[in-house]
Write a structure and sequence with these properties.
The structure holds two protein chains of two kinds.
Chain A: E1 5-16, E2 19-25, H1 27-32, E3 38-42, E4 52-61, E5 66-72, H2 76-82, E6 89-96, E7 109-114, H3 122-128, E8 132-138, H4 145-151, E9 154-159, E10 166-167, H5 170-180, E11 185-189, H6 192-204, E12 208-212, E13 228-232, E14 238-242, E15 249-251
Helix pairs in contact in A: 3-4, 5-6
Chain B: E1 8-10, E2 13-15, E3 19-21, E4 44-45, E5 62-65, E6 68-71, H1 80-93, E7 98-102, H2 107-118, E8 124-128, H3 139-142, H4 145-158, E9 163-166, H5 174-183, E10 188-191, E11 195-198, E12 200-201, E13 206-207, E14 213-217, H6 222-233, E15 240-242, H7 249-257, E16 262-265, H8 268-271, H9 275-290, H10 295-298
Parallel strand pairs in B: 3-16, 4-7, 7-8, 8-9, 9-10, 10-15, 15-16
Antiparallel strand pairs in B: 1-2, 5-6, 6-14, 11-14, 12-13
Helix pairs in contact in B: 2-4, 4-5, 7-9
Classes of the chains: A alpha/beta, B alpha/beta.
């Protein structure tokens, strides 16, 4: 039977403005979790904030038996989370969700992240290593670049304000890359407009694409149907799938981007 | 611990304990069945069913509010036939006592579903006359006593299963509605469904929910629910199933003291998947400590 776990905080520190890196100790979990999966964390006392907060795995530290989660402070839940100190405990469900479909036969993949959406892609970059070209898009301040560079020799950054790397959208870099390089699969996570563009670029260049989606969640396990995402069924009809259980990773071509 | 009798008789069915799940918070039991044996529950009340499958409302469908949450799922469900064919056998195999929750766009739809469910292994049928999120969610019936009476009476005629009438709190006088359900032949009433509510994002100047309005649940609604359960239990002769913001055994005991013969756990499932079984254990401990020999002795035992 599954059960909520009590995990100990090893480290919880800011890595950029409003962005924190949280390291939790759990040996078995570290072996079990897949890239793209998430943890559902109780962020507060009994009744307020009430609901758990879903936070994706960023990467594992197998030698320490730790999982690292990167999150942005956006409200009272993540505010609480950012106040946890080493030695404190957290009530955690997971790993939950489907994760990325990893095919180890792929010779060349592109990994594309935007903003906090870069975080769930780090473990995946580690799996593909130098077979992955990693594209990291930021508004201004960069983060996690070192972690990405440790995993792949080909990391390209874009900032919207032009302060670092390519000045503009990360999707420009992806488009250029796909035109020049035969690629087996694109993995992406980030804001919905960015993912929509990535999906379009992949479709036009006939490359498969997996996207990790975000939605407001309640239960996190598939029971409440709160975190729905519109998908196109084969018969052309529209259905709502559960981001927490059927996802958070979906094939880009099944997602109904205009919904 | 074994010295107390945890079983309760509701609507002619014997539940092994007074704790059920609230419809719409527990799916068809599959997800939470990974956390504990479903036969430990008094009953599993399944996701609201409609005659035909429903896609549900556009996202966002949930958001958190102070000590509570809003939802506007909009009765997404695979339809009563799929439930009978695929979900119910799985639940019965696991030894669960199953209560089907149904919503109709017309009295005939409620009757048709009752006829189908009558031939199945469900223990009882709960009439959703109070879903605030869709027009076909029965809310049109749940707000007027004469319609509650009519739909309850007709559904009772259509099948043999005990009927539980789920009441909306979005009314001026819930007692009047409960009395109409009892008069129509309802075997029990359950309350409260969610309170119609909304939230607004001031930066985008839009409602947070895709459906604009949704139902408020969680600890924030508990005092309202307790008051309504107390009022209704004092007015009707049929059993009352109490719900609304129950997070732990303490909350559950409050509802039983207010007059509820059973309780349902809803939003708490999302916070703690083990909430229902922890509540069962907590009620049992309370009974022992307080010298009650059965949970039925505690029903309405306010002094």
């Amino acid at each position: 039977m599954k059960e909520p776990k009590v995990l100990q905080v090893i480290e919880n520190k800011p890595i950029a403005a409003g962005i924190y890196s949280l390291e939790l100790y759990h040996h078995a979990l570290c072996e079990e979790v897949l890239p793209g999966q998430f943890f559902h964390i109780k962020c507060g006392g009994d009744k307020f904030p009430l609901l758990r907060r879903p936070i994706s795995l960023s990467y594992t530290k197998r030698e320490k038996g730790a999982v690292v989660l990167i999150y942005r402070v956006q409200g009272q839940g993540t505010e609480f989370l950012s106040s946890r100190r080493p030695g404190d405990s957290l009530d955690v469900l997971g790993p939950l969700g489907s994760g990325f479909e990893v095919n180890r036969q792929y010779e060349r993949v592109a990994i594309v992240g935007g903003g906090i959406g870069i975080a769930p892609l780090v473990e995946l970059a580690g799996i593909y290593g130098d077979r992955a070209a990693v594209f990291a898009g930021y508004r201004d301040e960069t983060f996690l670049l070192k972690e990405l560079q440790e995993r792949s020799a080909d990391v390209r950054a874009a900032t919207e304000d032009g302060s670092f790397g390519y000045g503009g959208f990360v999707t420009d870099l992806l488009l250029q890359y796909l035109k020049e390089q035969r690629t087996d699969m694109v993995f992406a996570c980030g804001p919905k407009p960015m993912l929509k563009t990535v999906a379009k670029i992949c479709r036009e260049n006939s490359v498969g694409c997996q996207v990790s989606l975000e939605e407001r969640m309640a239960c996190g396990v598939g029971a409440c149907l709160g975190c729905s995402c519109a998908v196109n069924e084969r018969d052309g009809s529209l259905q709502y799938k559960r981001v927490c259980k059927d996802g958070p990773v979906f094939r880009a071509e099944e997602v109904c981007w205009d919904e | 611990m074994s010295s107390v009798d945890m079983s309760v008789n509701i609507a002619g069915i014997r539940l092994k304990n007074p704790v059920m799940t609230a419809s719409g918070t527990f799916g068809f039991g599959e997800e939470y069945g990974e956390y504990y044996d479903l036969n430990r529950l008094g009953a599993v009340v399944v996701k609201g069913l409609t005659l035909r499958p429903r896609k549900g409302n556009p996202p966002p469908r949930t958001c958190e509010t102070p000590a509570g949450m809003l939802n506007s799922v909009g009765l997404q469900n695979p339809g009563v036939d799929f439930f009978l064919e695929k979900e119910l056998p799985r639940l019965l195999d696991r030894g669960a006592c199953v209560i089907a929750n149904i919503s109709g766009a017309s009295v005939d739809e409620y009757c048709l579903m009752m006829e189908k469910l009558s031939k199945s292994g469900v223990a009882a049928v709960e009439l959703n006359l109070s879903c605030p999120n869709v027009k076909e969610g029965g809310i049109a019936f749940g707000l007027k006593p004469d319609l509650v009476y009519e739909v309850t009476r007709r559904v009772k005629e259509c099948g043999q299963k005990p009927v539980i009438v789920k009441l909306s709190p979005n009314v001026t006088d819930i007692v009047e509605i409960a009395l109409a359900a009892a008069e129509g032949g309802g075997d029990a009433v359950s309350l409260i469904n969610t309170l119609l509510a909304m939230d607004i994002d001031v930066w985008s100047r839009r409602p947070v929910l895709g459906n604009t309005y949704g139902g408020l649940s969680g600890p924030a609604v508990k005092p309202v629910a307790l008051r309504m359960v107390h009022q209704v239990a004092g007015a009707v002769d049929i059993p009352v199933i109490g719900m609304g913001g129950i997070l732990d055994w303490y909350d559950a005991v409050q509802f039983i003291l207010a007059g509820a013969k059973a309780v349902a756990v809803g939003t708490a499932n999302f916070v703690n998947p083990l909430a229902p079984v922890e509540i069962i254990e907590g009620i049992e401990r309370y009974l022992v400590k307080q010298g009650f020999t059965s949970v039925e002795d505690m029903v309405g035992a306010l002094v």
